[in-house]
Amino acid sequence: MAAVAVWPLQSYLELGVLPTAVPCARGHARLVLAEWGLQELADPAELVVSELVTNGIRASRGLVGSRFGGRWSPGMPPVRLWLLSDYRTVLLQVWDGNNRMPTRQELDPESEGGRGLWLVEALSEDWGAFQPEHASGKVVWAAVVKP
Ligand SMILES: Nc1ncnc2c1ncn2[C@@H]1O[C@H](COP(=O)(O)OP(=O)(O)O)[C@@H](O)[C@H]1O
Ligand SMILES: [Mg+2]
After folding, report:
1. Ligand at shortest distance from the CA of 111
2. Per the domain annotation, does 42 fall within a domain?
3. Is residue 87 assigned to a domain?
4. Does residue 98 lie within any of the structural domains?
5. Residue-number span of the structural domain to which 147 is assigned
6. Residues 6 or more apart from 85 whose CB is under 8 A from it?
7. Which of 10, 12, 82, 121 has the most C-beta neighbours closer than 10 Å?
8. How far is Cα of residue 107 from the mean position of the Cα atoms in its chain?
């Protein structure tokens, strides 16, 4: 991901596909943003991280191998989380090894699920997904901006 180089503040975390992954990711995001002096973005960033990592964990189930950085690795891949910032915008990126792209669902009042990406949309300035070069899976990203 060539664009990573332009962000002065960067953090990277690999999360195993475990029940603790989502609370770990949330706590990590909160701590990193505090370290960067961006506490005011901690609440929305933590919620977005929670939704994207939850989706990434679910999408990883059943995967038996992955490619990342041109290298193939056997076994269930981790979920990878990047936090990038220029002190104003926080770009959250979550990679998982599933090639299927996320699709926002129609809002259905009868259904409990299908709201995560709506929440991401509401809390972020923009979001999207792309298939990185030299890797299987995809990155889902969202930009959270200071008011
Ligand atoms: N990382 C992902 N990989 C593959 N599919 C995804 C991913 N994230 C979301 N999706 C798809 O988009 C749908 C909507 O996601 P979301 O709004 O978070 O709702 P929910 O997680 O409750 O189903 C999911 O049901 C899934 O089909
Ligand atoms: Mg979800």
Report:
1. 1
2. yes
3. no
4. no
5. 20-79+127-147
6. 7, 8, 9, 10, 36, 38, 91
7. 82
8. 22
Decide if 115 is inside a domain.
no
Domains contained in the chain, number: 1
**Is pTM, for the whole model, over 0.85?**
yes
Please work out whether the CB of residue 97 comes within 6 Å of at least one atom of ligand 1: no
Considering only CA atoms, which residue is closest to atom 5 of ligand 1?
A: 102
Residue-wise pLDDT for 131-142, tens only, equals: 999 999 999 999
HSE at residue 75, side-chain half, CA atoms within 13 A, is 5
Residue of 55, 92, 130, 140 best suited for mutating to test ligand 1, as the one with most atoms within 8 Å of CB: 55
With a 6 Å cutoff on the Cβ, whether 42 touches ligand 1 is: no
Q: Nearest to residue 45, comparing CAs of 101, 103, 120?
A: 120
Per-residue pLDDT tens digits for 60-94: 999 999 999 999 999 999 999 999 999 999 999 99
Nearest CA to ligand 1 atom 19: 114
